[in-house]
Protein: Alpha-N-arabinofuranosidase
Organism: Marisediminitalea aggregata
Amino acid sequence: MKHWKQCKVLTRTSALAAALLVASCGESSAGLPVALQNTGFEQAVNGSPALWHIDQKVQGKGTIDLTTLKTGNGNVLRLTPNAQNTGSDLLGAGQMLDASQFAGQTVKVTALVGADDNALAIVGVHVLGDGDGFDFIQFKQTDSQGKLVAHEANLTVAPHAKNIIVYAITNTTSGHAYFDDIKLTGSGSAVSKEAESTGPLSASVTINTNNIIRKVPRSLFGTNIEWINNGQGLWSTASNSVDKQAVSEIKSSAFTLYRFPGGVFSDYYNWQDGVGPQKSRPAALHYPDGPKSQHFFGTDELVYLSKQTGADLLITVNAGHGTPKMAADWVDYLNNKKKQNVSLWEIGNELYMDGDLSGAEISAKEYANRYKAFASAMKAVDPSIKLGAIGGLNYGSYRFIKSDNWSKTILNRVGDDVDFFAVHNAYAPVLMGGGENADPKEVYKAMLAAPLNIEANIQSLDKLLANYDKPNKKIGVAITEWGPFFHVLPSSKWVDHIKTFGSSLFVGATMNTFLRQPRVEIANAFKLTDMGFMGWLGNRDGKFVPTAPMIAFDMYAEVINGSVVDTKVDVDSFASRSIGVIDAVKRVPYLDVTSVEKDGKLIVMVVNKHFSSPVTTTLNVRSRTSYGAYDMTVMTADSLDANTGTQLPSIPGLDWAKQVNMARFNKGADKEIRVSREQKTVTPTNGGDGQSVEISFAPMSITKLVFKP
């Protein structure tokens, strides 16, 4: 991830806006217009829109001109990106305004936006000033076949705002993005905050156990373990062994599959440095020009941990700087010499990403060539292993794959040799894409809307992979990294929010998403432990402590090997804004429900995303089984930022930013996350259409219901 430039007048702004701000950073507000200029793009200078700033850094990334469409709107701004349109400086145009005309008002922002040929058109409006808490909006229009689509939103302009920046950009590498009639209209009235509805909510959930969606694979409950920093704390130098307390915590968790040795560190890792006597193992770089670690936690220690905790292994081989022989020797070491029968092997990590930290990014064609060579060498050692290729589909602003055609290229060339497709499409909200200064509740709303976008992306990937399935071989999907993720920089006031209760609601809703999608066979949360801030098993006063996301994840363990059954939900919804890399969603149901039948029991997992209201729900169950009782487990907290008090590490020379504190962030403790259990009875039936039971789901909660005959 890159550290984007900032103007002195700003605290932080989105990467998308930063490229357009550079030329304006030296201007005072007095030298700027107070109203948006040339909003309909009727004025032109040398074929470009007059009065709109175009940064020199975007030259060579495509063309910016004016055109007309069949709709007869007159001139429209057209952006035509090319393959160079990547990174933080993106093709587009912008204006910076003096905010004084709109200060203290609610401003209506409207725009006509369109795209074609898989382009993405983005309009952004950011309020800027000294300090935090400034509002912004973004309109994101995917391919509309060139038709202009009307967008509208309200923007809060704080009384002490200094500037407003408006931009029209595209972050794709093909097609066209179109813009017209971008306008800001002041209300003339003081800013007002709309409170979330606190009235009573009701819902209806219908479960049909006779309609089975899929079996729940054990491999859906994985996590990531990294080799660096003593296995990110799993190796205890004090006891010269794998940390016993860590083993105890992991044994009681739901984790059943360990992905090793990265993430990003996989593509700079020589597994042979991590075996044999520890005293003779070398220290090695984490990545080119990066820090070093001694190889205390290598393959043998991983095998020990897997045996102690009963988990299986997924190995990511070094396809960035390694060789097919190196990978084949690792297969031989684990499956022949160590008799571990490791079946899941992933070839490379995020080699498709522009500026991948391993320094080994490559084209899709080159990756396909490497994949074929690695697969041939590895299967020559053990033909029974299953191999995964890396890929996925960009969607909206979630665009980490440099080439939109990456996956099709891979599948066309080596699809017959691919057992599963390894994708990383389920991080949220990723505020490096903008939104650090948004209202914290809006940030969490966007995060809880993200699973709907993730589910749609999995369904799109399913359609693509179906074209390459064979009658006796269906290509699986492995989400080998996923989880709550706010920011990567210690200077961010959000970086430590992955440990919060709000993040655990995202975990629950995302698990429901994975359970419902039959092609998703593997999922590895990111990550088990971390010497930084991303460990689901965190650190508090030198001891391992589960975070709220891990507690939520563990609630799902009982569904392993069960059958997901048809579940329909009728409930009110909310709208979320575009924040970070998460696109706006117009209708997000307050309840997210998935049901699993197992061993005669019915397990119902319910996430209530409403921040303040319970949802009174009629649960209609159609089943051959009559249930007489149910156990109810509820996870809840008093605030979205409640947490178990895990701590950021103290590192000389490193200062962590003061984190956003909504209500409870600074009061972290075990008691902040509450898990209650009770047993209830239901009226049994003798068949017929089924049973009904009324249950109230607490606001901001994850509930597990286990119905018993």
In short: The longest helix spans residues 440-466. Residues 1-28 have pLDDT under 50 and may be disordered.
